[in-house]
Amino acid sequence: xxxxxxxxxxxxxxxxxxxxxxxxxxxxxxxxxxxxxxxxxxxxxxxxxxxxxxxxxxxxxxxxxxxxxxxxxxxxxxxxxxxxxxxxxxxxxxxxxxxxxxxxxxxxxxxxxxxxxxxxxxxxxxxxxxxxxxxxxxxxxxxxxxxxxxxxxxxxxxxxxxxxxxxxxxxxxxxxxxxxxxxxxxxxxxxxxxxxxxxxxxxxxxxxxxxxxxxxxxxxxxxxxxxxxxxxxxxxxxxxxxxxxxxxxxxxxxxxxxx
Length: 259
Description:
The chain is an all-alpha fold. The chain is 63% helix and 0% strand. It is globular.
């Protein structure tokens, strides 16, 4: 019986990342374009599409995204924990719709913003986690003790400031900058989404502000996974890696060894 080669698994993993990225990038536009084919009021937020003819698209996309994220095995335990939390929260967003007078029981709607907030913040952490360069956080290094959570927090905080451990790899550095930019866009979308709740009704009625803020965060998340899936800025084939450097491809090899 033929056995799949390690490269086949790596290709499958890259395809999984591309699927996750495609869902994130396309979801807001599919919802927005799709609702135009129905005689229905345009919902104010992505979550509000649950009460529109696009409900099945929204729920199916969020559930698929959640399952993919939970099934994803990162290159260290922190990576896996973040994706597991994000995946579980995405499923929670789908199964616990936003508040609406037509939905009962009402307490379900109160859980929705909790799941949505956890999901969005986890998406931002994922983008920052993609910037990791060098040995994974839960590995011993040259016989020394494993780095603790403080080092992980410091690394991601520096990544948010566009400061990284030198990957000695131009493409990896470019990808890291994109990951950090995506994290900022996700954070911006979350902050503006929360701030619009305090805006005057006259301002809210201008457009579906919350939808666009949520779309900004979701598309940024999807784009970071598209880059991680080597859709763009892939390492140049045949270029030797510098000693101690780490691109996304070695991460993939480490991930596949865990399967």
